[in-house]
Amino acid sequence: MVKKRMVIILTIIQLAIFSLIGRLVQLQLVSTESFHGINLIEASVTQRTEQLIIDDGRGMFVDRYGQPLTYEYIPTLVLFPFLKKMDWPIDQMAAIVSVPKEMIKRQLEEAKGPIILHNGQRPIQLQSWQMERINELHIPGVIAVHKQYELKEKYAQHVIGLLGENEKLLKERYGDRKLSAKKVGVSGLQSSFDEFLIPDGETKLLYHVDARGEPLFGMDVKYTEQANPFYPITVQTTIDRTMQQYVEQIIAQHGMEKGAVVLLDVETNDVVALASAPAIDERNPYKNEAAQNKALLPQVPGSVFKVVVAAAALENGLVHGQTFNCDRKINGEPEEKKKGMRSFEESFAISCNNTFAELGKQLIAMNKNMFDIYAQKLGLLPRVGWEGDVYHFESFRPLREEKEGKIWTDERDKHVPLAVAQTAIGQKDVRVSPLAVANMMATIARGGEAKQVRIAQKMMYKNGTTFFTFDEKRLTTDSLRQETIDKLQELLQLVVMHPEGTGRAFQSLPYTVAGKSGTAETGKEKLVNKWFAGYFPADRPKYALVVVQLETASAASVTNAIFADIVRATYELEQKGMNEG
Fold first, then answer.
1. Which candidate, 28, 97, 256, 326, has a CA 20 to 30 Å from the CA of 484?
2. Where is the Penicillin-binding protein transpeptidase domain (predicted)?
């Protein structure tokens, strides 16, 4: 009986030993890279490794002059915690970086991992000669590197867009591809360029430790980076960082709660500055639709649309010196403010609704698609942002959040005189984006050539060579006659120069301005969209500018004040540049 029990016990012990051996074989030889979804080799290395990420590997955005828009690289001093248990030339290091030795000691004593030597909230920024001297010393655990930091001040947040941790989106875009990225572009250029910016790996400093956390001697601090020497990619935008900063400050100073500003370079049709209000609060970016880029979304334009009707009327011979009754509303009722009989030119300058309602009805009687035809010739429809093939991406759109404008929702309205009249003055169902309106102004200022709007100039490899160039592109080859463009330029200048013109407040600016105002009913009680769209200098156009304040009480509008301040800021920057040159 005892013998039998002994056999059973020995058998159980043998089975247990064999089970343990089998488990060890599975862990050490069979499932080392896929044990319950865990790579045991990587996990063991991680457990024995201290590291400091100095670059997350994601591509960056810069402005037209190469100034960073997302993050910068600061030359810093990295110290590893095992230094506090070693005898190393701390006095020499303190002398090189010009800080008290006690500061270095204190920060090392508090360190639980690799640290950046700092003075308060920001790292101590090294000079190039300091970096060279530090690295020439070859002290284990001491290294000078350029570390990636987010910019203290955010620029063009609505343009650049947001990053977020979104596993579903990451999976949809990249499938089972192994990536080091935890964040993905969820809006703006971060989203549209995500495939080019997504990191293949991080750049980091690391060293290995034993079970007690002591360094494994003979193994110095290692520097690892992405295997591909050409990445990450840098996207050079068309934004002028300084001008963008001015625009954002001006919007904030005037307290515009909802609206947009677009500033274009007339010659190239590049975005110089683009801002949307309200600003994005990173703690709650989607509160009050703040993350929406209002400059790319169709809005009710009001009288700004009269530019389209004027162009069509001029090209189709409807303007021949006649006068129009500006004492009447578009429905025939009397206006509260009498303006008398006015010429076509004066009607444009003072923004007489009845004139353009009458011309609009005549135009639609001639051709039901007349408004659409001329809106496209002027670069107002359908979308105006750059679009083209970029490697294997067909119809790549940097401004992918831009929505198409529209003039009609119901085709039957083209047969209803009052609906046509309302449409002719930019009401009813007319919707166009501030970006598109700016493009229309740039088209007129340029002499009639409608171009696509660029927000990106090129993509560059890590070594600075060009990866892809976003060439200037025509939006349409169907242009207005030169005499029509010349007349439109005169009309837009008259808006400012006429004593009753709706833009007469801009007469005293350092640059002469040409443009068109717009006050659009929104359908919300007593709230309007307040526009001014134009270009400057009027005699030699360089910039097209649109400012729109959305859903505001007309009397409280800051549109004109913002427009004027941006013109002044542009003038001051150009004068400063000329003086420095």
1. 326
2. 259-567
Element (H, E) at 195: helix 194-197
Q: Do 48-70+154-204+227-237 and 71-150 share a fold?
A: yes
Question: How far is it, in rounded angstroms, from Cα 234 to Cα 62?
Answer: 7
In angstroms, rounded to a whole number, what is the distance separating the alpha carbons of residues 80 and 83? Answer: 6
Strands (E), 316-417: 323-325, 341-343, 388-390, 393-396
Residue type, 457: Q
300: tokens are 């009710």
41/546 Cα distance (integer angstroms)? 58
List 72's β-bridge partners, or say none: 149
Which fold, 71-150? Penicillin-binding protein 2a (Domain 2) (3.90.1310)
In 56-113 the beta strands, taken as DSSP E runs, fall at 60-62, 71-79
Non-local (6+) Cβ contacts of 224 within 8 A are: 201, 202, 203, 204, 206
Q: In what order do the strands lie in the sheet with 71-79?
A: 115-116, 71-79, 142-150
Q: How far apart are CA 493 and CA 515, in angstroms?
A: 6
Rounded to an integer, what distance in angstroms lies between the CA atom of residue 451 and that of residue 385?
9
CATH entry, 241-580, from 2.40.70.10, 3.40.710.10, 3.90.1300.10, 3.30.70.1280: 3.40.710.10
Query: What is the CATH architecture of 48-70+154-204+227-237?
Result: Alpha-Beta Complex (3.90)
Least confident of 228-237, 322-331, 385-394, 505-514: 228-237
- Which pLDDT score is estimated for 216? 55
Mean pLDDT value across residues 97-107: 92
Tokens of 533: 């769209």
Q: What are the sequence ranges of the domains in the chain?
A: 48-70+154-204+227-237, 71-150, 241-580
Clarify whether 303 is annotated catalytic. yes
Q: Are 329 and 521 in contact (CB under 8 A)?
A: no
Span 455-483, mean pLDDT?
94
CB burial of residue 565 (10 Å; 0-12, 13-18, 19+): buried
What span, in angstroms and rounded, lies between the C-alpha atoms of 325 and 363? 18
Annotated active-site residue in 303, 351, 433, 557: 303
Range of lowest pLDDT (192-206, 369-383, 502-516): 192-206
Coil, strand or helix at 25: helix
Provide, rounded to the nearest whole percent, the portion of the chain with pLDDT above 70.
Answer: 88
Integer angstrom CA distances of residue 212 from 105, 109, 120, 490: 22, 17, 31, 81
